Amino acid sequence: MILQQQLAIIPVLILLATTTLISVSRLWRYTVLALVAQYLAVAWLVAMVWPIGLAVVKLVVGWMSSAILGAAQTDRREDGENGRIFVKGFLFRLFAIGVVWLVVFSVAPSVSGWFAAPLQVLWGSSLLIGAGILQMGISGEPFRVFVGLLTALAGFEVLYAAVESSVLVAGLLAMANLGLALAGSYLMVVNTLEEL
Amino acid sequence: MSAALLWIGIPLVAAVVFWFLRNQKLLCILAIGALNLLLALLAWKLPIGGVINFLGLSIELKETWIILGRSFVFEAGDRSFLMLIFVMGAFWYIGAVVVKVGRTFAPLGLAVIAFLVAALSVQPFLYAALFIEAAVLFSIPMLIPPGQVPGKGILRYVIFQTLAMPFIMFAGWVATIVEANPTDQRLLLQAVLFMALGFAFWLAIFPFYSWVPLLTSEVNPYVAGFVLNFFPTIVFLLSLDFLNTFAWLRDFSLLYVALRLIGAIMVIIGGIWVAFERELARMYGYAVLMENGFSLLALSLHSRVGLEIFTTLFVGRLLSLAVWGLALANLSGQERVTLEDVEGLLHSKPVTAGVILASCLSVAGLPLLAVFPMRLFLLEQLVKVAPVTAFWVFIGGGGLFVAGLRLLNSMARSEQDYQFAEKVIPVVFMVLGTLAIIIVGIFPGWLTRNLVGLLDAFERLQ
Questions:
Q1: Quick check: bond before A118 cis, omega within 30?
Q2: Does A173 touch chain B (CB under 8 A)?
């Protein structure tokens, strides 16, 4: 348990990296990979307050959601598809995620009055919520909007796990996550479909 | 047999069955419309919690259905809202016969209705958020059929409706703590804040309303109308359920002031935007927002009369928005239609033009049309408790009148002779709908008496 608490800063660091990558990268492969790593950190944080067996559900569902969103990306080209990371708007997005970090690390201690959760859980969840809302706010493309939505929802789930440990809620939230990923992939390809 | 199996299980199973029959679009729409009517009829006739005799068998219609430790509860008082929901469903499906909706509309719409009914009956209430989320997800293919490019409206719709879910879940968690510590003001404020945010996202309350006009302009107005009628109705009923369940919420003094302020802001903002709007489908979206604002104002009265107005507003809203959506869908399909596009419409398609005008003016509260009696009564009550708010609400409501007059001006502007370039069957449906708007407007009494029965489900709000 002590080791777990000492290592608890690692998922927060992973989340710092993944949320930054999700925010600045225009390459969908990097975004999906960041999402995959992000769910590892999410499961790690949830494992601090839930049994590992239940926390793994978040990981599996997150990876499945990432795979669903990634699978719908066939034949898509984006700004950075030619391999460049530093595309238009890079600095703005980096600045914006920097502001999210600042807000999160300043606000998280005061949020602890509302939620009895370890500080790392509060950092991680706030970071996810902030980055998710940022992503939804600055992007109009279904793929990025749904990545943002899943990120924000993952943040809420981490926070919710600290206050409620119902297996049924966990299961239903898992279905909601998968449903969102399916809805996102549907909206990504709907204009190419002929019939449903 | 439990009541939940009848009003949730059967529609869900039917939705799955009709999904496989979706190629037979007309058959699906008619069959699902008939099923909705049947379920409404059963809600009217069957005694929930009592015994029914069917084909010589005695079947007990149980109130509670327990799954994985959570229960779906229908009591005798819930029959009115079940009737309302399934009558609404039947009404929309009957109209869908003459509208070019996608093949998925019928089965997915039924699944949406089933999930929304489940949301109303599930206990503890935090699970309602998950069922409403399921309904939102099922509504996406219905709103954006294959081949259509999704716009900002659908994305914002999913974002805002999904963001409501965690707030309601957190509200559920805090509510259980508040029940144990009702004197803790900090917890109370926390619970109210979470609930307020959740409901604000669900009901597109200011400032989270931008998706509504965007959605109506991007998708088939009739399908958008279906979503924008069902979701707010269910969420408003859910809000009554919350008020009924939690004494601390009912007694929270700031709640009613906040509801009044937010309701007034929604009516005023909606009124301003709609008065200057040029696109017909967006006008429809702003009208929905204004209707939500009026419902909030009725709730803010914090009295039995306010609740009666609140429930009776449902029917005027249903009729007017359904007929308006039907006329818009017949006029444009999924194309965007502006005031310039409808110039001379009174000369070329007089019935469609007249129906659009009548339904728009009905939502605006024109005398002798469906919404007028409830709207007048609401303003009369509001002026007693908050005359300044009532004045601004009246001015805001006038925005829709201005929109109606601009529509009339545009539609009448033509040098062509009158002709009748319309299909007969849609015209019959639109005329019947408009007649219903007029009849309800002239004889609101019988409707009011029946709809007040909705309040039987919320005995602590009496």
A1: no
A2: yes
